[in-house]
Specification:
This protein is mostly helical and 88 residues long. The protein contains three helices and no strands. The protein is globular and about 50 Å long.
């Protein structure tokens, strides 16, 4: 992927995060987590094809990759929040 394409995707990513964040801010953690879980479930449902067993296996793999990405982003976001003095 070219540098310009990567930069465009990164900009799209941050723009979408910035648009969603205010909708979650200030709500109880239980509500935030249920909304995020629902969105992930919708995302997984968008992956179709193969037998039911193949589909479940593919979705499980996608979910594992997703959780790995989440865990990789936690320290990045902790640092951002610390620098913004939103996290102690």
């Amino acid at each position: 992927m070219r540098k310009a394409q990567k930069l465009k995707r990164l900009n799209e990513h941050y723009a979408l995060v910035a648009a969603i964040r205010p909708h979650l801010a200030g709500h109880r953690p239980e509500l935030q987590s249920s909304v995020l879980a629902d969105l992930v479930a919708i995302w997984l449902c968008g992956h179709q094809g193969g037998t039911e067993d193949e589909l479940m296996e593919a979705r499980a793999e996608l979910l594992c990759q997703f959780l790995k990405l989440v865990m990789e982003l936690v320290p990045v976001n902790e640092q951002i929040l610390r620098e913004a003095r939103l996290l102690h």
